[in-house]
Task: structure prediction
Amino acid sequence: MKPLVIKPSNHDEWLKVREEGIGASEVAAVVGLSPWDSPFSLWLKKTKQVPPIDETTLMHLGHLLEPVVATLWEEETGGKVVKSSAADIIYQDAEKPWRRVTPDRIAYRISAWSGKKEKILLEIKTSVVPFDEDELPDNYVAQCQYQMLVTGIHECELAWLASGRTFGHARIAYDKEFAEWLGEEVDKFWNNCVIGMQEPELTTVADFTYKGSTPDTSIEADPEALFDIAELRETNESLSSLEAKQEALKDKLKLFMGENEALVDSGGNIIATWKSGKKGRTFRLKAQKEQ
Result:
């Protein structure tokens, strides 16, 4: 069955419609594959127990750079992006309306197998870290699979601009079993957790930090926890010892420098400074690469 196509009149309306389901960028959190969200933190957002997160500068830049990455993909592949698909268009499952996605772009490319023009989804990413096309991030793969499931377009390419200078793209083949499993997990999360208000399992430190502690409760340490406690104590002792040594070395160098502001090597390169300021003198060791 074809999905319903919803075309919000503006971005605010799109955000409102998007809240009424699980989008592709959220599916990784549902199944524990997101590096940013857990099922619990997503549940808090979906049930409006926490305020929505404001768009960051990096997120805004990502949106601004989407047309650039789309153009690079066209130039690299010979494919053609459907310009109207740049709008906030929502594809909604006709039978399960909480399944809803907004692909970055719809495009056409020539199939490497049949030589015919085929319709595909184009997912666009900008990143400050390099991409490995042979080992794409699980959360992006899940996002693409879910989009293919909901839209019924079973071809997708991921295109990216990394570190502002490296462009790449990779085909993501439709994995029917994985995509359908994602859909099933989304169904359970929506019906049990969002509609039924069943709290998901807490799985991260952030989850337990937000939830807080239960007064007058305790848990007995197992062998692994006891080992971790011993290692933590040893690490703390080592850090204390190193911090004491660090301060002693700084004081020794300060005494050597006296009233001088800089310490230089035989070549005249500054290797440390001890400058006066509004809050007294500040000692700074120059890093090796700065010398």
About this structure: The first strand starts at residue 4 and ends at 6. The mean pLDDT is 92.
